[in-house]
Amino acid sequence: MKMGRKELRYAFPKTVPVMVGYLFLGAAYGILMQVNGFGLGWTAASSALIYAGSLQYLEVTLLAAMVHPLYAFFMGLMLNARHLFYGLSMLGKMKEIRHGKPYLIFGLTDETFSVLCSEETPGDLDRNAVYLWITFLDHLYWFAGSMAGCLLGSAVEFDSRGLDFALTALFVVIFTDQWKSRKDHRPALTGVAASALCVMAFGADLFLVPAMALILAVLTLGYRKEAQEKKEEQAYE
Amino acid sequence: MNELSVTRGVLIVAMLVLATAITRFLPFLLFPAGKKVPRYVEYLGRTLPYATIGLLVVYCLKDIRPLEPPYGIPQLLAAAVTAALHWKTGNSLLSIGAGTLLYMVLVQAVFV
Known about the structure:
The complex is a heterodimer of chains A (237) and B (112).
Chain A: H1 5-35, H2 40-49, H3 53-65, H4 69-94, H5 101-106, H6 110-117, H7 127-155, H8 165-181, H9 186-202, H10 208-236
Chain B: H1 3-30, H2 39-61, H3 73-89, H4 92-110
C-alpha cells in the first residue's frame, strides 16, 4: 500500500481541530513534566509510547510521588478502561484494514477515535491510507506539542505552583461533556458518590480499589435490574 | 535523581505503556470480526466510562482537608468555574486554561 499524497491532502484538514488541541495540551504536559524534574527523554518516551493524554497528565503525579509501578499499572487500566469500548465500536470499521492495523489500534486516542468514528472516505481514496495518515498526524502533534512544552518549561522561569490543577480541570471538562451528552446520569453519579464514600471510609490513600469495586457492583446491580425489566416486558407481550 | 528512582520511574512509564496497550488491543483480541459481544460487556461500555470520570474527579480532589484552612476553597472554586465555563462554551482549551490559571492565582496570591 502507498501512503499517497492524495490521501494526506484529504486527511490533514480532518485533523486540524485535533492539532490545535494536542499542541496546547501537549505543551502543558511537557511543561508539567519539566518543572517536576522529568525532562526531554522522559517526555519523549512517554508521548511516543504511552500516547494517552489524560493518563500522561496523571503520569506526572505518579512520577512525582514515585508510586509503586503496580499502582501505576492499575491507575492506567482504570483511566484507560474507556478505550476498551472505543475498540468495541471500531471493530466493524477496522475489519477491512489490511495494513498497519496494530499501529491504528495503538494510536486510538479519544480524539483520533472521534475523527475516525465519523470518517466516511470517498470511494476514489484508499481508506486504509487515510486512517493511517489521520492516526500518524495526531500522534505527531501530541509528540511535537509535548516536546515544545518541555523546552519552554526549561527556558522560562516561572512560579508553577498550582499548574498541576490542569489535570483536575481536564477531568471536570470531560465530566461536563459527558453530563451534557447523556440523559441517564446514574453512571456518572455512581462514580462520584461511590468514590466520595470510599474516600471518607478508607482515606485518600486507600480509597481507589474499594471505589472501583463498589462502582462495578452498583453498575452490575443496574444491569441485573435492566435485564429483569426487559424479561418482564417480553413476558407481557 | 538517583539511580533507584530512575529505575522506578522507568518501571512506572513501562507499566503505563503496558496498561494503555492492553486497554486498546483487548477488544480486538477478544472479539475478532463477527464474534458477538456479550450483553453485559455492552452494558459496561455504556456505563463504565461515565462512572470512571466521576471517580477521577474525586481522585483529583481527594486531598482536600475540609476542616483546615483554606478548606478546599481554591480547588472547589476553580473546579466550579471550569465546569460552568465549559457548560457555557464547550471549549475545552478555554475551560482548562482559565480554570488552571484561576487556581494558580488563588494558591499563589490569595490563599497564601
